[in-house]
Design brief:
The chain has 5 helices and 10 strands. The protein is of the alpha/beta class. The chain has an 8-stranded mixed sheet with strand order 6-7-5-4-1-9-8-10. It has a two-stranded antiparallel sheet with strand order 2-3. 39% of the residues are buried.
């Protein structure tokens, strides 16, 4: 199973945001929705071996985590609004400490960054990390930040985590996921140049 977790530092934690203003009222939910699409979409199919966690840290709080699981995912279309509608529906559910399904393959629970770090052995995607193309083996779980850098508190929590880079330039989070999945596909298929 390949896993991606994206920290949405300002992403809304309630479903009251407007689907017409994902960058504003939803706290840059547009960035997270692009990450969902990059994690799952192939031409005419979805990746069923991927999970994507959205760690929502914005208003009104407290933190929540929305999980998209490719093995059960339904009703996702390749546009930001579709992804955001599924997030919005998940956030409308009363949630507790365990994941609760809102639609097939989409789950929500209370808790965020610290809790997820305790559950999944992540590597961090970082421009200064080891080149993924030079790494002999790749981890299966990766942590990314949205359009903002990790906070100093988050950096303290992940200081000892392995770090990988997809290239010499800073990319958007969704583009980073695409490049990384391409590298994984190439290795899995034996199609390495």
């Amino acid at each position: 199973m390949k896993r991606f977790a994206v920290v949405g530092h300002r992403a809304a934690t309630s479903g009251t945001f407007s689907l017409n203003d994902l960058a504003g009222s939803a706290g840059r939910m547009d960035v997270l929705c692009r990450c969902i699409n990059a994690s799952f979409f192939l031409s005419h199919d979805l990746r069923r071996d991927v999970e994507c966690y959205l760690i929502l840290c914005g208003e009104p709080g407290p933190e929540k985590t929305v999980l998209f699981s490719g093995s059960a995912l339904r009703y996702l279309s390749p546009d930001e609004r579709s992804s955001a509608a599924l997030v919005k529906k998940a956030l409308a559910l009363p949630c507790g400490d365990e994941f609760r399904e809102s639609t097939p393959g989409v789950y929500v629970r209370r808790g965020g960054f610290t809790r997820l770090l305790a559950e999944v052995p992540f590597a961090v995607l970082d421009e200064a990390g080891e080149d993924i193309r030079a790494a002999p083996a790749l981890p299966e779980a990766y942590l990314l930040s949205d359009h903002l850098n990790f906070t100093p508190e988050e950096e303290d929590l992940i200081a000892a985590y392995p770090r990988y880079s997809v290239g010499p330039r800073s990319l958007h989070a969704d583009h980073t996921i695409t490049v990384l999945l391409n590298e994984m596909d190439r290795r899995e298929s034996g199609w390495i140049s």
